[in-house]
Amino acid sequence: MKLNVVVSLLLLLASTATCCPPSDHRALLAFRAALHEPYLGIFNSWTGQDCCHNWYGVSCDSLTHRVADINLRGESEDPIFERAHRTGYMTGHISPAICDLTRLSAITIADWKGISGEIPTCITRLPFLRTLDLIGNQISGPIPNDIGRLHRLAVLNVADNRISGSIPKSLTSLSSLMHLDLRNNLISGLIPSDFGRLTMLSRALLSGNRITGRIPESLTKIYRLADVDLSGNQLYGPIPPSLGRMAVLATLNLDGNKFSGEIPQTLMTSSVMNLNLSRNLLQGKIPEGFGPRSYFTVLDLSYNNLKGPIPRSISGASFIGHLDLSHNHLCGRIPVGSPFSHLEAASFMYNDCLCGKPLRACLKN
After folding, report:
1. CA–CA separation, 287 vs 294, rounded Å?
2. What is the spatial distance between Cα 241 and Cα 72, in angstroms, rounded to a whole number?
3. Do the domain assignments include residue 4?
4. Which of 7, 291, 334, 349 has the smallest CB count inside 10 Å?
5. How far apart (Å, rounded) are the C-alpha atoms in residues 162 and 141?
6. What is the DSSP code string of 265-300?
7. Is 82 inside any structural domain?
8. How many folded domains does the chain comprise?
9. The domain that contains 278 carries what CATH number?
């Protein structure tokens, strides 16, 4: 009889040791109480005392049994979505109780479409946080001012929300940040002048906001930066030629702004393969200097004030997949041969006096 009691106690202690602590359990239930998910029942599994096992979207550290990861995605291939034949929809707000989960390394509450309220400011007190992904909700208010305290943060994604205010100055203190996605919000103000302090950054996606001012020169000094999307803002001034000297920059989208001046020649022979400068106030000629290093999957210069001929050197580009020079003031003969043989008339329409295939034939002298 005594042996059975001892065995039972040992089993109880073992099971308790692998459960999440009561403080994490309470925090998760308070977090859940602030949300309403009416269709999929993703919180139906959040029962019992052991939140480390079989609680949907919750993962714990295998050694400490503290909650380490909240991963709730409203668009997923998980069977719970396939059975319901729908994507997720959730309302409510992100409770500050999430900040009581002090060992969190990842928070993903993405694509629920109806979650509103502000980002809890206490989230900046989570010292182990590496991922904050809140894309695709209705979250409003500013990015917390002291976001820069999260020195381990590698991913910050608040795209497709209603975030307002300016980019916090402290954001440039995120020394581990690799992926920054602020697209499609209501963010205003300037890009911080010391943006180049983000030395680990590979993607800077800031499109679809109300950001103004110039591109800071420090941004062009970020060696790892491969993808820059500043389209659909109110940026102005000249395009820095140093963008064309960045080592690994492959995508540069500056369309839909108020950039003026001439197109830097450096961009024609750079590492950039997807270049969109359309819908700006660019002037002057399309620069010469195309050559074997010029490889573009997309080259879009449409809706500007470009003048003069299409440069002959463009025929020396190794590849141009999609070219759009329409809605400018270009004039002269369209070069023949690659990369022009596969292009349609829409690529050249609404200029002053371009001629040759695929437009009308040029008049003979």
Report:
1. 12
2. 42
3. no
4. 7
5. 7
6. GGGGGSS-SEEE--SSEE-SBPPS---TT-EEEEEE
7. yes
8. 1
9. 3.80.10.10
Q: Are 130 and 155 in contact (CB under 8 A)?
A: yes
**Contact predicate 86/39, CB 8 Å:** yes
pLDDT at 38: 93
Q: pLDDT tens digits for 273-293?
A: 999 999 999 999 999 988 888
Structural domain includes residue 104: yes
* DSSP 8-state assignment for residue 167: P
Q: Which of 80-84, 290-294, 331-335 has the lowest mean pLDDT?
A: 80-84
- 362 by Cβ neighbours in 10 Å (0-12 / 13-18 / 19+) ranks as middle
Give the whole-angstrom CA distance, residue 262 versus residue 239.
8
Do the strands 203-205 and 179-181 form a parallel or antiparallel pair, or are they unpaired?
Answer: parallel
Strand, helix or coil for residue 31:
helix
Sequence-separated (6 or more) residues with CB below 8 Å from residue 65:
17, 18, 19, 20, 21, 52
Instruction: State the residue range of the domain holding 123.
Output: 41-355
| Angle subtended at Cα 152 by Cα 147 and Cα 154, rounded to the nearest 5 degrees | 85
Q: Are 193 and 214 in contact (CB under 8 A)?
A: no
Separation between Cα atoms, residue 299 and residue 184, nearest integer Å: 23
Structure tokens at 65: 């049994």
Q: Which residue has the tokens 């002053």?
A: 352
Tell me which residue of 320, 356, 325 sits closest to 339, measured CA to CA.
320
Angle at 208 between CA 204 and CA 210, to 5 degrees: 100
Tokens representing 257 are 């702004």
> The whole model's pTM is what?
0.92
| Closest residue by Cα to residue 102 from 141, 138, 63, 61 | 61
